[in-house]
Amino acid sequence: MMRFVSLILIITNYIGIVAFSVSGSIKAIEKRMDLLGIITLGFSTSLAGGILADLLLGITPPTNLIYLPYPTASFLTSIMTFLYFRKFNIINKILIYADALGLGAFTASGASLAYHLSPSPLLVIMVGTITAVGGGVLRDILANDIPLVLTKEFYATSAIIGSSAYYILAYLNIPAYTNSSIVLLLTFFLRVIAIMKKWKLPSIN
Asked: For residue 43, which of 28, 56, 58 has the smallest C-alpha distance?
């Protein structure tokens, strides 16, 4: 069972790494950064959230820094984005959907990791959310933007809902693969619908 759970974590991690590497790389390209800047934002966006989650869970050194296929996947994705981004005619849409997919994948990955270490609802929700949004926060800071998670966007809220759903489904003994798939898709579609419908949280204007 644990080997199966580990496989699910690896799959969702790779989906998130590729999606967030594209998101971070395109952000760097929009900011006219050079190749090093593109790789740095791709790496930060895709791996920083997982590094922070591991540290919070007492996993040291963080998996993203010692399991070389993860940073390698990030570097290669960033380089491929750098080489072929001119062929994209709808960069903004690619960025939006890549970011939403990464959000869903890392929500599922972080929530799953936390649940199987300690099935505490607060831990699962916090780690799932931090894993999902941590890299994006660092990306925006490095790009000199206000982090999306701190604005009115329905962003971190999608990850919170997805992480909560993971805990509920796991508590109901839904199989890990099915649970992770549901959470990934739920978080992804929540984010996409929020963009389309312009959902925003209340704020003082």
From this structure: 28
Give me the residue label for tokens 């799959």. 11
- pLDDT of 96 > 80? The answer is no
The two tokens of residue 96 are: 């939006």
| Angle between helical axes of 35-56 and 91-117 (0-180°, round to 10) | 20
Residue 10 burial (10 A CB sphere; 0-12, 13-18, 19+): middle
Count of C-beta atoms within a 10 Å radius of residue 12: 25
Closest of 192, 10, 37 to residue 101, by C-alpha? 192
Q: Taking the CB of residue 143, how many other CB atoms lie within 10 A of it?
A: 18
Whether 89 shows a pLDDT value over 60: the answer reads: no
In the numeric block, the tokens 């849409």 are attached to 93
Whole-number Å distance between alpha carbons of 9 and 7: 5
pLDDT score for 198:
83
